[in-house]
Automatic annotation (TrEMBL):
Organism lineage string: Archaea, Methanobacteriati, Methanobacteriota, Methanomada group, Methanobacteria
Molecular function (Gene Ontology), one example: oxidoreductase activity
The protein, known as: 2-oxoisovalerate ferredoxin oxidoreductase delta subunit
Species: Methanobrevibacter millerae
SUPFAM superfamilies named in the record: 4Fe-4S ferredoxins
InterPro entries in the record: 4Fe4S_Fe-S-bd, 4Fe4S_Fe_S_CS
Length: 95
């Protein structure tokens, strides 16, 4: 079994005030500012869809309660076949 971790920020566009702290704070530049505005008249942050490592810097820097969460999942992958293939290749000296 292999653990694969999947992380991504979930931003509530209606609670975001567009302060950009999460954008500045993300070491992966994974959060962007929308051109659109929410119902309160703020441009809001959104996840680009790529690059999140789950560090949670964006979560800790956001001043708006419930505007930003970081979701993390652990996907357990059955890698039995992969291990068998790697073992076979290794036993043949990588050929
Ligand atoms: S958890 Fe870290 S890497 Fe992911 S979006 Fe937030 S600041 Fe960026
Ligand atoms: S830090 Fe929070 S309020 Fe500021 S832009 Fe990011 S999600 Fe919006």
């Amino acid at each position: 079994m292999v653990d694969e971790e999947i992380s991504f920020p979930v931003i509530n566009s209606e609670l975001c005030k567009g302060c950009k702290r999460c954008i500045t704070g993300c070491p992966q530049n994974a959060i962007l500012l929308s051109d659109d505005m929410n119902n309160a008249g703020y441009q809001y942050a959104y996840y680009s869809g790529n690059g999140c490592t789950g560090c949670k810097d964006c979560y800790f820097t956001c001043p708006e309660p419930l505007a930003l969460e970081v979701h993390q999942y652990k996907k357990i992958v059955d890698d039995t076949v992969g291990r068998m293939i790697r073992a076979k290749v290794a036993s043949k000296g990588g050929k």
